[in-house]
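Key result, reporting period 2: structure in, sequence out.
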């Protein structure tokens, strides 16, 4: 292989490697046992630099006034690499809510 082809290969492979290895994502799942509310926090990072953070809430329609959420993390999902190409890890607690009860009956 000539050095010209090698450098050309590097030009192609390097950005591909950066795109493949760089991104990572962490999704944290929280629950509030007082109101049965749920919260998902997604944090994207690129080479350890934290990017935008997205909070998604699933709250009961009727919240008591002045309610302060007691967020409890019951599950964490981490992935490294593009679409988890390098590693994926999930850590879960046995119950979704801190008091071990299931979500409120509707
Ligand atoms: Zn709450």
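The corresponding designed sequence is given below.
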């Amino acid at each position: 292989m000539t050095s010209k082809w090698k450098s050309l290969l590097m030009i192609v492979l390097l950005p591909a490697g950066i795109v493949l290895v760089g991104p990572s994502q962490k999704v944290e799942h929280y629950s509030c046992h007082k109101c049965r509310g749920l919260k998902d926090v997604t944090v994207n990072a690129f080479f350890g630099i934290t990017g935008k953070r997205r909070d998604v809430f699933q709250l009961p329609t009727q919240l008591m006034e002045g309610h302060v959420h007691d967020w409890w993390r019951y599950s964490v999902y981490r992935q490294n690499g593009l679409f988890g190409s390098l590693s994926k890890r999930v850590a879960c607690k046995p119950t979704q809510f801190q008091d071990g009860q299931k979500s409120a009956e509707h």
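The chain has a mean pLDDT of 91. Helices lie at 3-21. This case is discussed further under Risks and Mitigation.
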